[in-house]
Amino acid sequence: MMKLYTKVFFRAVFNTDFGERVRVVGDSPLLGSWDPKKGHELKTSEELFPSWFSLEPILLPIKEKVQYKYVIVDETGKLINWEEIEDNRELVPTGVEMTVEDDNGLYREQTQSHLESYSMALDAEQQLVTDSKQREDQVTQARVTYVHQQEMDSMIDENDTLLVVSFELPVKVSKSEDGQFVVTPGKTALLPTLYQQRKKTKIPVKTIGWPGIHVEDPRDQEEIERLLADYDCHPVFPPKKELDEYLAFCHRFLWPLFHNVVILDTHSQQPFNNEQWGHYQAMNRLWAEAVVRVAHETDLIWVHDYHLLVAPLFITRRIRKANVGLFLHIPFPSSEIFRCLPVREEILRGMLCADLIGFHFFEYARHFLVACKRLLGIEHHCRMGGFLGLEYGGGGGGGGGR
Length: 402
Prior knowledge:
The structure is a single chain. The chain is of the alpha/beta class. Helices cover 35% and strands 23% of the residues. It has 10 helices and 19 strands. The strands form 5 sheets. The chain has a 6-stranded parallel β-sheet. α5 crosses α6 (274-294) and α7 crosses α9 (344-352). The model is unreliable at 394-402 (pLDDT under 50).
């Protein structure tokens, strides 16, 4: 005989702290068999908090009694505490679909209130449209004019250049046995791929970065520059000792922390190195100076990854109206983890000097926005085109919205 199931939704009220989650666990395998890590996770929102609710139902066998409780867990699913009631809750699934309201109807009241507010606003807007058709036409025309002006201001043509700025060039320079410099493809996956696409764009694309070889003789540096010019590449020649210290800072501090790793073992924990932080800033300044030497005011400057997080600051100090984009190819940590970095505010301010910051996932962008709010007091807001904006005027010459 076919077994029948009921779609069950849960609703509950919990005043949780930031980063905490609410789950339903019970004696059914579908509720994790009392394991908080396998329970049914509820969701909330800024408008509906402290209400927690099921976005998707779970299927429980019809008319089979289920015992359950709510638990609070952290972002990783680790148990924080069980709800404080003496006995387990019980339910008996019936019908095709049912909602378990353990919130005394708060969710219904909240959603009803939002619907009423929306309805009133909609009625008011419709009334204004009815009363002032001429004003609607004026507003529409103003919006069209504004969008057109924005498009005209951002037009690019073959006179502009896209400068791709990264720690390493997409090609590598080495010295052959006969003493000649030769160029070979780089070993990284991303930059060579972007490099291969450069001929498909309507504007010139140039890359700036380390060529993978240390040379101190100015004549050798000039020869490498001439060699790389045929590949649309501009090399940066950092001193070897300073470069090693710079990379040590990136790998010891930035890489693990940005992957939400904090070493708590005092025996293996690396103390923060202010000297290496100074080398990190110096290398970012060196890359920025390389950009300034070849960039024009209308060029697009695209900075890549955690090696150059404060480079936008040094670029915008030299080129007042620079168009700078920054893309982070690794996660951005939660604000609780990021605040463990002694130079957290300096890193944020350096990143905020870019006009556009890109992340792999919205979760990483959300971590960045929360960090800006909690550490710098900067709120984000929605912008035209589906962007999230931050108003920041520090560091660079132009200021304005980021």
